[in-house]
Design brief:
Blueprint: E1 2-9, H1 14-25, E2 31-41, H2 43-59, E3 63-67, H3 69-77, E4 86-87, H4 90-98
Parallel strand pairs: 1-2, 2-3, 3-4
Helix pairs in contact: 1-2
């Protein structure tokens, strides 16, 4: 599954993001969080991504994150690239989940 988000992932949208992802974790399917259309990512958004990663690891679900250059730079700046399985393209993320 691929979840594509657009707009901003910040304190105002964090709750909606977490609710959506948590509801879909029940499907027990690996997924990609596509943030290539996100304009802005703040610490609340990063926190939501970290929480998602922890829940996936606990449930042994595969996941990956794809972001545009701004989002990827923010994630790498706080050294969460590996933890969030950050990939440079949707194709790379899908291949990561296949392995």
């Amino acid at each position: 599954m691929v979840f594509t988000f657009k707009g901003q992932l910040d304190a105002f949208s964090e709750k909606q993001f977490k609710t959506f992802v948590t509801n879909n974790l029940k499907n027990q399917l690996s997924f990609v969080i596509d943030l290539t259309k996100i304009d802005f990512l703040d610490s609340s958004g990063l926190g939501a991504l970290v929480q998602t990663a922890k829940e996936c690891k606990k449930s042994k679900l595969g996941f990956s994150v794809v972001g545009n250059s701004r989002v990827a730079q923010t994630i790498k700046l706080v050294r969460l690239g590996d933890f969030l399985n950050l990939k440079s393209s949707l194709e790379d993320a899908l291949n990561f989940l296949k392995n």
